[in-house]
Amino acid sequence: MEPLFKLYGSRWLLVFSLISMVVCSIGFNELQMRLGASIIDALLGGYDFQTVQERFLIYGEDGRALYARAALTLDIFYPVVYSTFFAGLIIMGAVSPGARYLVLVPLLTAFLDIGENVSIYLLLTNFPAITEAEVLRASSLTIAKWWAVAFTLVIAFGQLALRLAMLTVARLRR
User: Fold this and answer.
1) pLDDT per residue over 39-62, tens digit each?
2) Using CA atoms, how far apart are residues 6 and 86, in angstroms rounded to an integer?
3) Is the peptide bond before 106 cis (omega within 30 degrees of 0)?
4) Residue 127 C-beta-side C-alpha neighbours within 13 Å
5) Which one is predicted more confidently, 20 or 93?
6) CA distance 89 to 18
7) Under 8 Å between Cβ of 120 and 71
8) pTM to 2 decimals?
9) How confident is the model at residue 3 (pLDDT cuts 50, 70, 90)?
10) Are 60 and 106 in contact (CB under 8 A)?
11) What is the CA angle 105-110-115, rounded to 5?
12) With the C-alpha atoms ordered 60, 65, 67, 68, is the resulting torsion angle positive or negative?
């Protein structure tokens, strides 16, 4: 694990992943503008069969094809990038050697996100022959992803806040 910690602790990787997150966000904005509606994996509370039907009809055939390509390109790259960024923040903020193992949280979040993207891709490419069970699976992965993202944010920024508090206390004691 030490090489992984060293990699994630690289400031260059942190900066690269932050810039990549911004570029991906611009890409998602452009995608949603072309689709005429927000992407379904942005729905924090998940979605049901009817919502998917309505959105996919709004997207149209060309929009669904565009979204499917983005689900397996842009939306696969993005989880890798944001998990790298937050893993870097966790390494930078780690207050103990054991705390560095919290990098597993953003990595697991990325795996959930990628699973969600594959499920959405399958919905998009099989539409209109999709089932409620397939939609439920994709929606459940979306909800789980957003909970994991929230947990990742709490851990990453919590580690940094704790590290800053410890540095401040140490400085005040001098």
Assistant:
1) 999 998 999 999 999 999 999 999
2) 14
3) no
4) 25
5) 20
6) 11
7) yes
8) 0.90
9) confident
10) no
11) 125
12) positive
**CA 45, CA 92: separation in Å to the nearest integer?**
32
Please, where are the H alpha helices in 36-103?
49-71, 74-93
Q: Could you tell me if 145 and 41 are in contact, meaning their C-beta atoms sit under 8 angstroms apart?
A: yes
In angstroms, what CA-CA distances link 158 with 125, 154, 162, 171? 40, 5, 6, 20
Q: What pLDDT is stored for residue 136 in this prediction?
A: 97
Note the maximum CA span of the chain. 68
For residue 31, give the H/E element and its range.
helix 11-35
Whole domain around residue 22: which residue ranges?
A: 2-173
pLDDT digits (tens, 9 = 90+) for 136-158: 999 999 999 999 999 999 999 99
52 half-sphere exposure, CB direction, 13 A CA radius: 27
Q: Provide the number of structural domains found in the chain.
A: 1
CA distance 24 to 27: 5
* Residue with token string 């904005």: 29
For residue 22 the two structure tokens come to 């911004």
